[in-house]
Amino acid sequence: MRKRLILLFVIFVALYFLLHIAYDLPNLVNGHSRFLGMPASMGDLIGRLLEIVLYFLFALVPYLLFYHFYPRRVAPAIVLTVIALPIIFYLCYKTGRDVRLKSYFLNNIFYAFLYTVYGLVFYFIRYAQHKELEQKDMVIQNRQSELSFLRSQINPHFLFNSLHNIYSLMYQNAAGAQDAILSLSDLLRYMLYDASERVPLQKEIDYIARYIELQKIRFDHAIHAPLRVTGDTAALPIVPLLLIPFVENAFKHGDFSGMEEGVEITIHAGPRSIYFHCVNRKGHGLKDAAGGIGLQNVQRRLALLYADKHTLKIDDTDNHFTINLELING
């Protein structure tokens, strides 16, 4: 508030001198300017400063009234402003000297109107700026809330699938189930504690590799699920848990009955881009109702976090489901 009032006063002083110079311009051209002349005495100097302060009230009072009442109570702001102006007029001419009507209109009504308008314009400009910042802040908060919600959906979805797989394994291979629980613990630690706003791409790749190993326990035979990585994966940042829904979808709805086809994942780290490719052979079983949550989730996160800095292509054929994603950093 203090900074706003200082700015209001500084601009007012500049406006005050500019208006009076313009009014006195004919005399200024002829070298007989009265306004710009140095005060002849200390009394003249005090009078000039007092005039500036009194005229400043025409801008300050409307500004403060609207600041206090607008927009909740517009009527009191207008009424009090109208009441305050005659009081300021009285203070400006509380000298006891005679005042001509022409001088009164030129030196009081005219300037008072301009200064009052200035105070109101200054207020509404600042108000518009405040509302714009408030709107941007609200958009950011809503965006963060939505991202938090989307992020929270990933963990239960993945946890449910993993626990189901480990539960099935316990009846077949108790030792393997123990290893799977340890792997799941590492994954959950990353999801809950290590995943900040951005992580190195290599961390996300390590997460995907552990996830693939955890998924292999579902099968009683070896499956085709290579993960190929190229480029400098330690240098590029990525939003955590962004790629895993694609991989999870591939394992959930893929056909791993054969040894030659299953899922293939390729990740390449370019100078400023990340390329992700995932293709899986489609199973012909029916999808459950929740099958699309992961993909819808990641598409929304991409729209929020990468906006115009990503390209996502999904190719869904009779036998294969392919994801091609490019992320641009910077």
From TrEMBL:
Q: Which InterPro entries is this protein grouped with?
A: Bact_2-comp_sensor_kinase (IPR050640), HATPase_C_sf (IPR036890), Sig_transdc_His_kin_internal (IPR010559)
Q: What are the TM regions of this chain, as residue ranges?
A: 46-67, 74-93, 105-125
Q: Which UniProt keywords apply?
A: Membrane, Transmembrane, Transmembrane helix
A GO CC term assigned to this protein in UniProt: membrane
Pfam families per the UniProt record, alphabetical: His_kinase
Domain Signal transduction histidine kinase internal region, chain residue ranges per copy:
146-222
- MF GO annotations: phosphorelay sensor kinase activity
Name recorded for this polypeptide: Signal transduction histidine kinase internal region domain-containing protein
What species was this sequence derived from? Paraflavitalea soli
